[in-house]
Amino acid sequence: MSTMTSTSDPGPVDRVPKLLFIGGRWRAATGGRTFAVEDPATEAVLCEVADASPEDGLAALDAAAAAQPGWAATAPRDRGEVLRRAHDLLVGRTEEIALLITLEMGKSLAESRAEVAYAAEYLRWFSEEAPRISGEWRVNSAGDGRIVTLRQPVGPCLLITPWNAPLAMPARKVGPAIAAGCTMVVKPAEQTPLTTLALAAALAEAGLPDGVLNVVPTTAPGPVTAPLLRDRRLRKVSFTGSTAVGRTLLGAAAGNVLRTSMELGGNAPFIVCADADVAAAVDGAMTAKMRNVGEACVAANRFLVHADVADEFVAGLTARMAALTVGRGVDDGVRVGPLIDAVQRDRVAGLVDDAVRRGARIATGGRVPERAGYFYPPTVLTDVPAGARLGSEEIFGPVAPITTFTDEQEAVRAANDTEFGLVGYLYTRDVGRAVRLAELLETGMVGLNRGLVSDAAAPFGGVKQSGLGREGGTGGIDEYLEVKYVALGL
Ligand code: NAD
Does pTM surpass 0.90? Predict the structure, then answer.
């Protein structure tokens, strides 16, 4: 497909069903309500999408609950085959879906293509895990019985996803849920429902039975999900988004004693030691900072650089950041698209202004451009003082604040001085230091001489207030399975 230059091009937006998907049917919302989806690069409305009401949410749970027993009884291989076919469909539609992601979310087409590959990989990974769900057979301690364990699907799940990776975030939940034999209601972010609807269409085409997956875009996420969370038929909630909303959902889940998986906010430290390969660290920093225009939970949020290599690192990173082309993600050569909306852009600008007021220096960027769209330039800040808000708040934008350290322990203390614990990045050539610091970082993941940790084959997730549970890897399917123990008398 040729590069798109106008959002008036019908293309993929026209081809996505802009409706609710419930019980295998595409249908309008109760009362015919719709909401507008915007292109953050132009502020133009792309289309209207059905806006689910609480009754529509419950209808989706009705469908999921009705489909649960039949789906749980299917052959694991058949569930895997559906996922494998959906993987192939997504990969075959890379250009179409990448364009959809770019139009509603803003990131560059190159990044959107990478997201399609990444998301599809979760479907392939879990297609392979479905037939490997295992159990146990043991002799009991007294020797007069047997301990048999089997693993069964948790049951109907509510999956709530954010806008920053509108294909990959649902794929990371839908893949293991389908593989495990669970049915589900998916509530995509209101900024980016189209990509999730395209995913639902691909899964239906791949042979997913009616009712197994239901999608309810809505502008009222609280009122639509609250009755589901209270409903005894729901057995699990899996959420990716902010820690604040995660806390609310955990509270609601407590009332119904639901299984929960929470992928929440981050505040990733990026540590560059004196012995680091600084050029490699700059490369890694560009990935860790600029993937998704910095709108990633795993984005490097605080750069802690040893004073001996700080000048070299700052010069390298500043040159690379300043050279990035900012523009509409659909345009050729653009590397940095807009942020998702005005709220997010103003929040990022506010964090930078706060740091500068407190004494930080701008090495590049730092000013909102005068143009349509929610753009913020790649920005490097040095001499960031303790107490600047961006040291403790998730930036979620293309801003790299740099501070220096002279002592390894001081760096670790600073890195861990946050309620978040998703990922930490570490650059050093000393094996002993690498092991020591990787073990000391209070995070669920560590990027060691690597700016990218995401991998369908790896357990993705955080500690502290960054979340509960892991997505992907060999344990990823466990989030959607219950262990049943059968005490067997002889
Ligand atoms: P958000 O929490 O505002 O929204 C996420 C989702 O929750 C959306 O679908 C939204 O509609 C829904 N939601 C909002 N209020 C709700 C409520 N009261 N009840 C039910 N659902 C509700 O987050 P966001 O701004 O869309 O995404 C950014 C956040 O997501 C960042 O903090 C980021 O770190 C986090 N994130 C985490 C991961 C991870 O894997 N840890 C991945 C991506 C994003």
Answer: yes
